[in-house]
Batch of 2 targets.
Target 1
Amino acid sequence: MRVLIASSEVHPFSKTGGLADMVAALAKSLARAGIETTVLTPLYRGIAEKFPDIAPTDYLFDVPLGAKRVQAGLRRLPVEERLEILFLDQPGYFSRPSLYQENGADFADNAERFIFFAKCVAHFARYSPAKPDVVHLHDWQAGLVPLLILDQRLRDGWSSAPRTCFTIHNLAFQGNFPRSSYALTNLPADYFHPGGVEFYGGLNCLKAGIAYADFNTTVSPRYAREIMTEAYGCGLDGVLRGRQDALAGILNGVDYDEWTTTKNPFLKHPFTARQLAGKAKDKLALQAEMGLPQNAGVPLFGSITRLTDQKGIDIQLGALEEMLAAKMQFVLLGSGAPEFERACQQLAHKHQGRAAVRIGYDAGLAHRIEAGCDFFLMPSRFEPCGLNQMYSLRYGTIPIVRRTGGLDDSVIDAGDDDELADGIKFSEYSARALAKAIRKALLLYEDKKLLRFFRRNAMTADFSWERTTAEYLRVYQRARGLAAA
Ligand code: ADP
């Protein structure tokens, strides 16, 4: 089988969140399972300089975009057997200081940029020499691809068109644009209705994916159920319920080549579930790096997050205000909404010597926080999958999570199964409930034997990609089965 994956982010070339990690790991894992895998993604600024092995190709895109035509080149990076990454080279759209925004505001031409991307993906699926059997699209930036492919199958004689799988990584990001943007798709008006791409009078790219893909997936089983409810559906719960026979929740895996406590270039002191001495040293090193007093005996809590409403920053700040009076330390690495950045810095200022905050994006520090902390806070309002709690588990850092989405699917509380317990969960979205969970963590920290038991369970929990990949292969087969039907 041959699979074409399209995503606006792919680690290590571009990343604003878990999407990039997931796509890179899925692609690698598919190739290792024997699938010919190609990933198509934009060539953003700096990628070519950082990865000089990315080579030009002769392939040239020339696609209609409303009334004009737009061209792009294609560059190629063979990664390993059966896996290549292709980069869409259109500097006007993609060579910018960041991926989607400038000074906190979305680029005004995001619709044009990503409709162009979607068109190139569909074009490549049809005209490249290696024809894919399945095209796997990710998030709103690639959401129009299933419709573009379907339309060409129905109206343009593409009888051998591949089947499409669409994965929703976060229903909150939908790619909503004014109705006028729809003209850029060059699609007939037939699809612009409430059962199609229309959403409150505008164009909704995510909805296009949901409505027209042969199969939809999201990144955890619980999130798949949640998004079919009004509370979590972001206005699309009805469309999702309508497609529930073709919707599956597949928990993301973890790339354990990268997220490892041994042979990790970011960690000074390696450790394993049996040999935790390195973790204790990583803790002291982290305290020093963050400017906190070095003290092996104080429980250290950590957080690595986009500072947005989704991640429960408000209840985290509330709970910490209360709990930092206790004997504990807290470190945070994050960036996002200016008001949350300010509030986090104020917290650190007020609780100097107990709380330390680093605003910014730093992959190395993310590993050191995962390794050096005793507990990891992830009190998300909603969480499609979440990767950090799974990284925490592997690093023996006990996650404290809210019972939602992928957090609920990946962490085991003693109340769920006391033999397998590896984390602490709470349900109510409130600072009070989180503070209570932190208090439980402080008690756990005092019980060294029980803490070791939690840590061992955590570090041996297995979220490797083989299982996830097998599930995606089943979905691809189902999608292909639809072709035969
Ligand atoms: P989301 O995709 O919603 O942001 P996930 O937990 O699925 O959340 O994935 C977040 C990914 O981004 C993880 O790999 C995490 O380590 C990384 N990350 C988030 N913020 C930062 C940051 N400030 N510095 C370094 N890595 C970060």
Target 2
Amino acid sequence: MVKKKFSGDIDIIRELLEITENLSHNKDIVSLLDNILYEARKFTNADAGTIFLREENELNFSYFQNDTLTQLDENNKKFIYANSSIPINDESIAGYVANSSKPLLINDVYKLNNKVPYSFNDSFDKQSNYSSKSFLTVPLITSRDQTIGVMQIINAKDENDQIIPFTQDDLMYVSFFANNASVAIERAQMTQQIILRMISMAELRDPKETGAHVNRVGSYTIEIYQKWAKNHNIDEKTIKAYKDVLRLASMLHDVGKVAISDTILKKPGRLTDEEYDVMKTHTVHGAELFKERVSDWDKVSSEIAIHHHEKWDGTGYPYQLKGEEIPISGRITALADVYDALISRRVYKEAWDEKKVLELIESESGKHFDPEVVKAFFSIYDIIKAIREKFPDKE
Ligand code: C2E
Ligand code: SIN
Ligand code: SIN
Ligand code: FE
Ligand code: FE
């Protein structure tokens, strides 16, 4: 990562405003956080970073980047899906910044002055073998003066890749950028909320439970896509743009279930043939919701709704499409959905054990599933497991 050279303050501000403007194009909260961290790190030439978002009185570990660790092993990206939260109080660095709503510069987190109230939690370093040193931690404050989270930028580097402290200028500009980014985060959170409500209405189930299943399917789908796309030499820009629409679209795969009666949808036992035929229409009903097709997002959502039960060998529904006739979004969501359906409990079935699920997926490669998608899935299986742990079903 090469530090940008600026000729002066005005240029810096102009650049930051331009970056902010681009953030407003992100629809999806995950790709938005990815971009925000990336830009803040590029600006300060920092190796790593974390975004925490506030959930009631806690900070939830929400996004993570770390060049050193991900270059070693791409499955280290699983740390993105770490399921941890910290209380908002003065005991941790991020908690202190959220509490005070003021930015904080630390040159070496292992040499904290003993007068400060906070201490550094080294459990991540221990777990991952990483060496944290310089920190720049800024609050994420919205235009209504609410602190919605904290961004932490870690290990600034000089031209020789040596870790150096962040500067006062870094602090000033990153804070400015963080304020603008917060507005975009708030908007993306609202979009996500609206979509989750729509889904919970469609499935007429406990919104918490629905949320977990669709969050998992959405996250599996973008991670499998990213791996598949890299295997197919698709360029980074296309991957990023597609991921931005793909997660929300995949979360909506079953939204057509809104048209299926409760007696069928929630039936505890096996469906009769007639009931199953009705159930199958959730695919076409889902696609109807997006038939205006105004944006990329409508297009991909429609594709996934209609094609997520097609099979690679042409024996699926509703159109018995075969192989690459099925859009990639549908081929990936099909695997993500079946994996999650098998490994979880459903009203009509118990959870299967993991070994049995993975054997089924393997044996369906080239039949139900696209072999290339199956390959991508297995090569990022650590990330898949981390996603499951991040979004557990509520009892
Ligand atoms: P779902 O629960 O999300 O399941 C998605 C897909 O996972 C299923 O698509 C199927 O391909 C796979 N799957 C789920 N459970 C099993 C299983 O026990 N064995 C195998 N081999 N595959 C499984 P499918 O079959 O087209 O079903 C679509 C939707 O229809 C399901 O979504 C579920 O909502 C409903 N459904 C299917 N079968 C039954 C049933 O016997 N009883 C009830 N109440 N609903 C069912
Ligand atoms: C990254 O860690 O930089 C990539 C994360 C993502 O695109 O999901
Ligand atoms: C789903 O949420 O996709 C499955 C609904 C169910 O059968 O419990
Ligand atoms: Fe479905
Ligand atoms: Fe589903």
